[in-house]
Sequence to fold (97 residues):
Amino acid sequence: MANKYRHNKIKQEHTIIEDILPLLEEIADSRLIKSIIPGRINRRKGSGTPAYLQLKYNTPTGIKMIGKNSASLQEIFVVTDYSEKAMIYLKKFTFVK
Fold:
């Protein structure tokens, strides 16, 4: 029986910012990444910028990122056993800052 809250490696129990989901699906393809868990969403002033992911810091289970689009930002937790290698991998994408 498939887990009803997971699609690929992305947990989808709660809302995910619309523009961020394709970016998460792209980084989920890596073997370095075990799971992606989106967190809470906050509003921000509209800036008209395209969606992107921002690396924040390492956590005990992986990496914390922030997903941003023109109207919202969302915490994203990436679960990995190889934080440093995963950071290098993620920095190769143009949509990760």
Notes: Residues 62 and 79 are 5 Å apart (CA to CA). The chain has one domain: 6-91.
